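Hi everyone, sorry if this is the wrong subforum. Our group has a chain we'd like a structural model of before ordering constructs, and none of us has done structure prediction before. Sequence below.
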Amino acid sequence: MKIQVRAYYEEVKWLQVQKIPTMEEYIAVALVTAGYPMLATTSFIGMGDVVTKETFDCIFSEPKIVRASAVISRLMDDVVSHKFEQKRGHVASAVECYMKQHGASEEETHVEFNKQVTNAWKDINEECMIPTRVPRTILTRVLNFARAMDVGYKNEDRYTHSGTVLRIS
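Answer:
Right subforum, don't worry. Here is the predicted structure as tokens:
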């Protein structure tokens, strides 16, 4: 929780001075503020004996599957929501950071982020295929949250605009 709050505070400082951080600075903070690691970890509560102290220690060490899932969540969110968020005075997104740092167009940035998301899915697949000390049920939980993020941010921001986009008929 402290890590989450510190990351939000860092974003507030950037917003106050209108700083567009480097991608490295941004990703270090934004993977936390995306909320994915916290959401995945808290979802383990109530899973019974399958979750042990070792499980939490492993997840807190940020294994490849958790980082890759956070990358998917953050980059897909930023691609589909950055224009809306900039209109309402939000901190710079990965799109603005990448464009500034690399002199790239918005389209070039989207192409690059799609490659990074594809690579993150490869990392998730690799983690799910290789035996690990983390129980399969935990890996499946992390995988399913990544799938939900993919659905939520595929081509549009279904999280922010959930009242109109995710409506069940």
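For your construct planning: The mean pLDDT is 86. The chain is about 70% helix and 0% strand.
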